[in-house]
Amino acid sequence: MTMTVDDLLRRSARRAPDSVAVIETGGSLTYGQLERRADQVASALSRVGVLRGERVVLALENSSAFIACYFGILRAQAVVVPLASGPRSDRLAAALSDCTPAACIVDEATWPTVAASPVAGALRGHFVVPRRTLSAPNELVLEDATPRNRCEEGPPDPSTGVRDDVAAIIYTSGTTGAPRGVMLTHANICANTSSIIQYLSLSAADRVMVVLPFYYVYGLSLLHTHIAVGGSVVLDNRFAFPNVVLKGMRDHAVTGFAGVPSTFAMLLHQSSLRKMSFPTLRYVTQAGGPMPAARVREWLEALPGVPFYVMYGATEAAARLAYVPPAELTRHLGSIGRAIPGVELRVRREDGSAADVGEVGELVARGPNISPGYWNCPEETQVRFGPDGYRTGDLGFADRDGFLYLVGRRHDMIKVGAHRVSAKEIEEVLHEHPAVHEAAVVSVAHDLLGEVPVAHVALREGAAAKEPELVAFCRGRLAEHKVPAQVVFHRELPKSGAGKIDKRALGVGAQTEVAS
Fold this sequence. Notes:
CATH class of the domain at 5-18 and 29-185: Alpha Beta
Strand content: 25-35%
CATH superfamily of the domain at 5-18 and 29-185: ANL, N-terminal domain
Structural class: alpha/beta
Number of strands: 27
Helix content: 25-40%
Strand order of the largest sheet: 2-1-10-9-11-12-13-14-15
Number of helices: 14
Shape: globular
Radius of gyration: 23 Å
């Protein structure tokens, strides 16, 4: 079978060319229109000499333009490298040097960074998309600003695509903070897309509100799944104003919504969610890190009739590894669920043997969705990807029903004297406090104990709490060595572009000492 990622669009366009594929603030685009634009992008890349397997950087905000360019790059048999756009993109410069692209498609704010990069002189073509056209579906025109090696060929023959070719390189931060490129093949993405469609029962009738960026693998999976079934993606980049997004969900009769933990914290504490109704909303999904049990309960109380899928995954898995069926959620609160269809997810000891029920070990995944490794990182690829599968770096255990529970990441365990303390466990307790909006626990050096936990907290609007109160709250629920040595208050915790709390910005592994 030779199905590739761009076939997801091609097949839906053939089945229903007049169905709506994309809805955004500037209008909508049908599958037929999106298909034609993808062909135009593929032709433009071929004209500047982009060859099969070469990398093309794509740095645009979520828009119909991004989607057309994404599928167009794949249709040209190139490798798409989606990156955050704008002058403050934290991975752009390093990713450019690492992936050495043959071409780029970027917005006006991003181009100066690309132009200043050492790789700029080697680009065979660059396309700068004016901001005014990003949300104007009928105005996407790619004009190469610096054409080289032009030819007059059209897009490559789609029948020559190979599923084992790399389709995308997704940059994600490693344990050192340096971005690394996760290679995802066409086969990886298509396998994971099929599995997600199966357990969410997606169809052409589905319409998802997308607030997660497409350069983030979770956001990209929303695009893949809904394009594959012939559904619609509703794009809104204004989540800083959550009520605007909620109104859009209602007005566009959205059937699905997806978010990371901070997304739901914001909707619960800083929006009119509880005053609104969403009669067409069929499901909600959550991934992007553990969501505290207190927030899950709060969400279920706010939207009691809407199935809520807690999910677990990794960029290295093309998005998804496990989920909790909504009917099992309250019985297994705190769990990340069981493996999705087609994936094997096991808890293993250090020596690779299977852990017993309740025994903590590392989660190791196998399946057709698992990446072949990291771009230009053979050493780390060898460490993380082996005969047993992909070593996630997450520590957890399985209960007797086979449901998996995380206790933390290897680099997120704090060594307090002779004790190993899970930052996640302390965060779960802090989220139980009624004044806490968000919490993140990091390690700080200590002159006697080696390390101690320090809690960083943002309070809910209108709520009040002081450090002694939160420390006492933790002391009543945790062993003494797990109680935060300090509580630092923030108006809002720092976030990555995908909305995840950025612990590095809070000083993970910082050498600032807490005195005994």
